Amino acid sequence: LKEEMVFHEASTLGSLWPVGYAGIWFFPLLQVISDFDMTLSRFGCNGRRCPTSHNILDTSRVISEDGKKKLKDLLHHYYPIEIDPNRTLEEKRPLMVEWWTKAHELLVQQKIHKSDIAEIVRESEAMLRYRLGVVVLSFGHGVDTMELRAVCLSVPCAQGILTHFKGPLIHTYNKNNSVLQGSGYFQQLSTRTSIILLGDSMGDLTMADGVPSVENILKIGFLNDKVEERRKKYLDSYDIVLESDETLDVVNGILRYLLGLELHLQSLVGGEGA
Ligand SMILES: Nc1ccn([C@@H]2O[C@H](COP(=O)(O)O)[C@@H](O)[C@H]2O)c(=O)n1
Q1: Residue 256 lies in a domain
Q2: What are the transmembrane regions (predicted)?
Q3: How far is the CA of 178 from the centre of ligand 1 (A)?
Q4: Which of 11, 23, 129, 246 is the residue whose CA sits 20 to 30 A from 36?
Q5: What is the largest CA-CA distance in the chain?
Q6: Is ligand 1 within 6 A of the CB of residue 172?
Q7: pLDDT digit string, tens, across residues 155-177
Q8: Residues 141 and 170 sit within 8 Å (Cβ to Cβ)
């Protein structure tokens, strides 16, 4: 069964639950909605920060020294705002748009070749917490949902060169159905009324807004940075808070538990897959 759970590539919008899985009770009712950066990917390793999707590009060999400096200055200015527990989300939203917009403008100026991207990602220090063997709706942004083995750069390219970023802009604090409009994603999964939501910021809490007929939602928050200052807010908002945990062990434990229940129920009625 574990093998059955390692199937499609993660994080493609519109993907369905693993083909061939015979579950009949819990799993057809379940969807996982996850943030990508610092949630599926790691925040740190051996005492060092791991890069975000943006950081991978920002610090790579395809960016000029001047470009790198400007992108770094933006990070140093806006990241403290992003994680400031004393600012409201309303205050943060326009500033995040400002950050993403300025960063994207700088990236476009760099004339990045699409063909360089996969190698840049391979060369980077980005790491997944775990090779999650299930299909997830993953909220990425800008440099868009980047798998670590091969990047799908969701940006239009002219002759393979980055020309601009496609909208809608998804940043840390606007992740909800408004940015998925027209994708039909939530409609496709409308029978999956139980949700496991994974995030690392207060902005990730709204990722399931717009899912029709939610019956159960379990929100799991990774508290990676400024743990002391932000603990209370996270505990008030997430059902489970994982502090400085670079694994997906808790999530996998929950999925395994559900799978165990599923198999048990199937065996009681002599169902398929028992
Ligand atoms: N130009 C940028 C913009 C954002 N970031 C970082 O990416 C992270 C994205 O995390 P989410 O939880 O929103 O998926 C965010 O924490 C920003 O710090 C960046 O590095 N460069």
Answers
A1: yes
A2: 15-33
A3: 19
A4: 23
A5: 66
A6: yes
A7: 555 678 888 888 788 899 998 87
A8: yes
55 lines ligand 1 (CB under 6 A): yes
Residue 12 lies in a domain: yes
Domain hosting residue 100, numbered range: 3-269
CA nearest ligand 1 atom 15, residue: 172
Tell me if the pTM is above 0.90: no
Pocket lining: 144 vs ligand 1, CB cutoff 6 Å: no
* Residue 232: Cβ-neighbour burial (10 angstroms; 0-12, 13-18, 19+): exposed
Q: Tell me the CA–centroid distance for residue 37 and ligand 1, in Å.
A: 7
Establish if 35 belongs to a structural domain: yes
Active-site residue set: 35, 37
pLDDT, tens digit, 9 for 90 and up, residues 66-85:
999 999 999 999 999 999 99
CA atoms of 107 and 142, how far apart (whole Å)? 11
> Token digits for 171?
């940043």
Structural domains counted in the chain: 1
CATH number (domain holding residue 104): 3.40.50
User: Rounded to whole angstroms, how far apart are CA atoms 7 and 194?
Assistant: 21
Mean pLDDT on 105-134:
86
- In this model, does residue 149 exceed pLDDT 80? no
ipTM of the complex: 0.98
Q: Contact, 45 vs 246, CB < 8 A?
A: yes
The helix or strand, by DSSP H or E, that contains position 253, with its residue range, turns out to be helix 249-269
